[in-house]
């Protein structure tokens, strides 16, 4: 389904985005399965889905009628979330309405700056760009670099901030009070409805929930630990 950029941003306001991802080697690690999970999330009211991998993006676009936020993880350390322009361009070509990429101030593998990456993506595609940030300074820099959305996705994972138990509401509040003129997306360790509500109250334009909705292995482990002590 086609959306204008303004429609995408407006459709996310005050709403839930569901991240639909499975790790390599897991039973659900299959594009068709991920597309079915994405469709179930959309049926439940998700305003958008966040999907990893080119095949999964293709499958999700055919399965849902809500915006698809796409990314491509290459590795698992450093700058690995859609780390280069070529990764970002491929994500857009696969059908993502929004390309999520590493929005930190760390050097990018292809030598381009974040601003150069975003500018090329805007010039060559119609996709919006979501910058996954780890700190207030990241978010300020990403906004200045031209990102259309900034997220707290990497808070607690880049060494600039401690890893909080639950969402980093302090960072959300700081971002909402700072000179950031693009929507702020709360993402990271949001495991309960009250935490999601608190993220909106802290200034988030929208909230991303992944593990607590779409990762049965982790959810099962929570209950196992509770039952078995």
Automatic annotation (TrEMBL):
This is Putative N-acetylmannosamine-6-phosphate 2-epimerase. Signal peptide: none annotated. NCBIfam families: PRK01130.1. Pfam families: NanE. Converts N-acetylmannosamine-6-phosphate (ManNAc-6-P) to N-acetylglucosamine-6-phosphate (GlcNAc-6-P). Pathway: Amino-sugar metabolism; N-acetylneuraminate degradation; D-fructose 6-phosphate from N-acetylneuraminate: step 3/5. Its EC number is 5.1.3.9. It is an enzyme of class 5 (isomerase). InterPro entries: Aldolase_TIM, NanE, RibuloseP-bd_barrel. It comes from the Bacteria.
């Amino acid at each position: 389904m086609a959306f204008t950029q303004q429609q995408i941003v407006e459709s996310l306001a005050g709403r839930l985005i569901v991240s639909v991802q499975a790790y390599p080697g897991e039973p659900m690690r299959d594009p068709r399965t991920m597309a079915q999970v994405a469709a179930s999330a959309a049926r439940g009211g998700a305003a958008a889905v966040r999907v990893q991998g080119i095949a999964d993006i293709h499958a999700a676009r055919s399965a849902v009628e809500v915006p698809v936020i796409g990314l491509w993880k290459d590795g698992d350390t450093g700058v690995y979330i859609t780390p280069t322009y070529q990764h970002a361009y491929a994500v857009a070509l696969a059908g993502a309405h929004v390309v999520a990429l590493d929005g930190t101030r760390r050097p990018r593998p292809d030598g381009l700056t974040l601003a150069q990456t975003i500018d090329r993506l805007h010039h060559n595609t119609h996709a919006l760009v979501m910058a996954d940030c780890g700190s207030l300074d990241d978010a300020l820099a990403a906004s200045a670099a031209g990102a259309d959305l900034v997220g707290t996705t990497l808070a607690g994972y880049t060494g600039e901030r401690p890893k909080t138990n639950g969402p980093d509401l302090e960072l959300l509040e700081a971002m909402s009070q700072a000179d950031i003129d693009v929507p702020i997306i709360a993402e990271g360790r949001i495991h309960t409805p009250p935490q999601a509500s608190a993220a909106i109250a802290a200034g988030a334009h929208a909230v991303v929930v992944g593990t607590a909705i779409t990762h049965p292995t982790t959810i099962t482990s929570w209950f196992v630990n509770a039952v078995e002590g």
